[in-house]
Design goal:
- By secondary structure, this protein is an all-alpha fold.
- The protein has one domain.
- The protein has 17 helices and no strands.
- α3 packs antiparallel against α6, α9 runs antiparallel to α10 and α10 packs antiparallel against α11.
């Protein structure tokens, strides 16, 4: 460090949050484009092909969960270490993080070429769906090194406040995916028409190029951490600390993956169209939820840095601003889903039957969006300040103790529209737990730093 304090400790909180979060919100929306663009073009092949991509999502969610949780741990420790002026720990964490992401990508390379076929056959006996889904998932999961290292280098840029540079890596990856999707799927510019295989190849290509660009930006434009080949080694104490912070996030995403798989199983008892509706909802809602996750990614290093620097007032003001922003964004998303459900579903070439089932589904589910905005921020605050188990408990209770049982019980009525009520029911449970644990976390901060008791 050169003695000049990082902007996370000196800029006004509103300006700082905007500077950190807006590029990340845009980046996360671009991340959502990977699946949405694939699904948009694949839906032009057939509804079975679209359903196949929807059923593949739980496997992709596991990758995102492991990469995101590992990145969260690395991000928080690097930011906190820089706040404490501990350069050695920051560098050791950054280099250990690269090793951890390499191990994660090796694990999923094995899984991608072994479990995808059985995974789809366990969900449906529709041959077209099984074939398309296995083809798509084998490539995306087996060749997932690109997305793991993309997460790695983006999180290192975010940890030092360089969220705009992180955004550039997302822009590059999304642009490559959008350009090559139609070319490889339908066979333009002399390429053979590869269908869902082309969609998977375009996705992987975008991720790999984005990862290399992220590495370049860290080496040339991120002087506060030092990536060196000679420093790439396993540090057990750093890895343990990374996963102490990140494991709850990984487990939460794994629970989410299990939830999606289980909900698909429930919906497939009604029809494959019902599963397609859920897949369409999941992709559409990503444009609402991903900006909130981007807001989180901008918020977490600010909170971690100022917590490490013993500045609780800055921590609490950042939390308040984040909550206001999240609820406002989610309120806008709710209005879009309530007013324009047919237009949203038509993005995926929805059939008349898909519209009939999907319009009430989107309107019912969207009623929980504003509550979810608060709950997402509350859980991330708990993780950033060192109480990741609180966030884990909130997520597990919401999904496995509330949403899934409610969906199953409501499905016994054989009225599909009632199944969607499980989403707002679960979010009320999440709101109660999130409020309780957020207050408990802030009280702990008060006890450690000696600040005034929390008023949130």
């Amino acid at each position: 460090m050169d003695g000049k304090e990082n902007k996370m400790g000196v800029l006004p909180e509103g300006r700082l949050l905007a500077d950190m979060a807006i590029p990340m919100m845009f980046s996360m929306m671009l991340q959502a484009l990977y699946n949405v663009v694939d699904s948009y073009f694949v839906s032009r092949i057939s509804q079975d092909a679209f359903t196949a991509l929807s059923l593949a999502f739980p496997l992709q969610a596991l990758i995102i969960g492991l990469a995101g949780g590992t990145g969260l741990g690395v991000n928080a420790i690097v930011s906190r270490s820089l706040g404490e002026r501990d350069q050695e720990t920051a560098d050791r964490t950054a280099n250990t993080g690269v090793v951890l992401f390499a191990l994660c990508s090796a694990l999923f390379a094995v899984l991608g070429f072994t479990v995808t076929g059985p995974f789809f056959r366990a969900q449906t006996d529709v041959a077209a769906i099984v074939e398309a889904g296995t083809t798509y998932a084998t490539i995306c999961i087996g060749c997932s090194a690109g997305i793991f290292f993309q997460f790695c280098f983006e999180r290192l840029l975010q940890a030092t406040g360089r969220t705009r540079l992180s955004m550039y890596t997302q822009v590059m990856g999304a642009a490559i995916n959008m350009v090559f999707d139609p070319i490889l799927i339908f066979g333009y510019l002399g390429f053979p028409a590869m269908g869902v295989r082309g969609a998977a190849l375009a996705t992987v290509l975008g991720q790999i190029i984005s990862a290399f660009f992220g590495l370049y930006l860290n080496l040339k434009r991120n002087p506060e951490i030092h990536l060196r080949f000679s420093l790439l080694r396993w540090h057990g104490d750093i890895a343990a600390e990374v996963y102490k912070i990140g494991f709850p996030s990984i487990l939460m995403q794994s629970v989410s993956s299990l939830l999606v798989f289980s909900l698909n199983a429930i919906l497939l008892t009604f029809s494959t169209v019902a599963a397609a509706v859920y897949g369409a909802y999941f992709k559409l809602q990503s444009f609402i939820f991903m900006p909130i996750f981007g807001l989180n990614n901008g918020m977490v290093p600010i909170i971690s840095y100022n917590y490490g620097a013993r500045r609780p007032d800055r921590v609490k003001r950042t939390i308040r601003l984040s909550v206001y922003a999240a609820v406002s964004i989610m309120g806008t998303g709710m209005l879009l889903f309530e007013l324009f459900p047919a237009q949203l579903l038509s993005v995926f070439n929805a059939s008349d039957e898909m519209l009939r089932q999907g319009i009430p589904a989107l309107r019912i589910i969207a009623t929980h969006f504003m509550l979810a905005g608060f709950c997402i921020i509350a859980g991330s605050v708990c993780q950033a300040i060192g109480n990741p188990m609180h966030a884990l408990l909130i997520s597990v209770c919401r999904q496995m103790a509330a949403l899934l049982p409610a969906a199953y019980l409501l499905s016994l009525t054989r009225r599909l529209e009632l199944v969607w009520l499980a989403f707002p029911i679960a979010e009320v449970v999440s709101l109660i737990l999130s409020t309780y644990f957020l207050r408990k976390t802030l009280r702990r901060m008060h006890e450690k730093l000696g600040d005034a008791p929390p008023e949130i």
